[in-house]
Design goal:
Elements lengths: L2 E6 L6 H11 L4 E7 L1 H4 L10 H10 L5 E5 L4 H8 L3 E5 L6 H11 L4 E5 L7 H11 L3
Parallel strand pairs: 1-2, 1-4, 2-3, 4-5
């Protein structure tokens, strides 16, 4: 059985999220999804619109997700030790960064592959938020 793992905030759930989850599920037998807790979102000086408890329920309801879990730390090696996945799915905006080059080396040594998916440029939670602000005159 091939276990896949991905993470995200999944705020203002949209088609880009569906694309990632559908594509990830097509490449593994079991897909585990880490949903970032509100306190961890705040480290980027951001705040999600939808609270964590609702975001994780939305992700759990997606037919491509076998298990949705709280992402309480950015430590991907901790997640690997906890969930024993074979593939990590990540947006291609991280490809080639020092951080992910290091993860790739660590994961490779443990037989884990990183797959980078194209970022959905046509929509994002940030874009939706900006559009809502403009529509509301904020």
């Amino acid at each position: 059985m091939v276990i896949g793992y991905t993470t995200g905030v999944f705020d203002l759930f949209h088609v880009g999220h569906i694309n990632v989850l559908r594509n990830a599920k097509s490449m593994c037998d079991r897909l585990i999804v880490g949903v970032t807790i509100d306190e961890l979102v705040a480290y980027k000086n951001k705040k999600s619109v939808i609270p964590f408890e609702e975001r994780i329920e939305i992700v759990r309801a997606c037919k491509y997700v076998d298990l949705a879990v709280p992402q309480m730390t950015m430590d991907k090696m901790d997640a690997l030790n906890r969930y024993k996945f074979d593939i990590m799915f990540v947006g291609d905006d991280w490809y080639g960064t020092d951080k992910w080059e290091d993860f790739d080396k660590s994961f490779s040594s443990r037989g884990v592959k990183i797959i980078y998916f194209p970022y959905t440029k046509s929509t994002s939670s940030t874009l939706i938020n900006e559009t809502l602000k403009k529509l509301r005159g904020i």
